[in-house]
Amino acid sequence: MGSKWVQILKEIAPQTKHTTVMLNPDVAPYYRMYMSSMEFAASSLEVEISEAHVRSRVEVEAAISTIANQPASALIVMSDPFLGIHRDLIIALTAKYLVPAIYPYRLFVPEGGLISYGVDIVDIHRRAANYVDRILKGESAADLPVQTPSKYELDINLKTAKALGLSVPPTLLATADEVIE
């Protein structure tokens, strides 16, 4: 997933030379799983990767302001509850500072986020409901196989792309699940 975020961000904002991964490590300790794939993809695309650990609204604003002051920079917003709660602030600040950003969930894009790539939450819940049903009918949870997400969504906000001065490549538009104009 991490490598795909870097790749898509570089595709929509090809001038990107530096990408910051924003997260709250207190609620997203799993972020390190993503970092190695992001670093690998970044090295092949000649992009530097750094981390911005944020734990408050003030730190979110400071991180995005810092990113905006670095030429050819972009933002990856990690999947974490803190950032989800503060999505309005993050979207407003990336618009204010003209920072291209990729988000982990579709719900960021209709609210003004540039682009999102992540698991299809509805599909995950549907599949989880099937497991709950099987458990309630007597199957042991320990006997059920672990499932990984199988459906991913790519969503693009063309209005935001235009405001950032970005033209979305046709190949990216063709693969998008939803395009907001």
Question: Could you provide a short overview of the structure?
Answer:
The chain is an alpha/beta fold.
Domain count: 1
CATH homologous group name: Response regulator
Mean pLDDT: 93
CATH class: Alpha Beta
In this structure, how is the largest beta sheet organized?
A: 7 strands, mixed
By secondary-structure content and strand pairing, the structural class works out as alpha/beta
Strand order in the sheet with the most strands? 2-1-3-4-5-6-7
CATH topology: Rossmann fold
Distance between the termini: 26 Å
What general outline do the C-alpha atoms trace?
globular
CATH architecture grouping: 3-Layer(aba) Sandwich
Q: How many strand units?
A: 7
**Poorly predicted ranges:** none
Portion of residues within helices: 40-55%
Q: Hey, roughly how much beta strand do the residues contain?
A: 15-25%
Order of helices and strands: HEHEHEHHEEHEHHE
Rg result: 17 Å
Number of discrete helical segments: 8
Describe the structure in your own words.
- The chain is an alpha/beta fold and 181 residues long.
- It has a single domain, classed as Response regulator (Rossmann fold, 3-Layer(aba) Sandwich).
- Helices cover 44% and strands 19% of the residues.
- The protein is built from eight helices and seven strands, in the order αβαβαβααββαβααβ.
- Strands 2-1-3-4-5-6-7 form a seven-stranded mixed sheet, with helices on both faces.
- Helix 2 links the parallel strand 1 and strand 2.
- The longest helix has 16 residues.
- The radius of gyration is 17 Å and the shape is globular.
- The two termini are 26 Å apart.
- The model has no long low-confidence stretch (mean pLDDT 93).
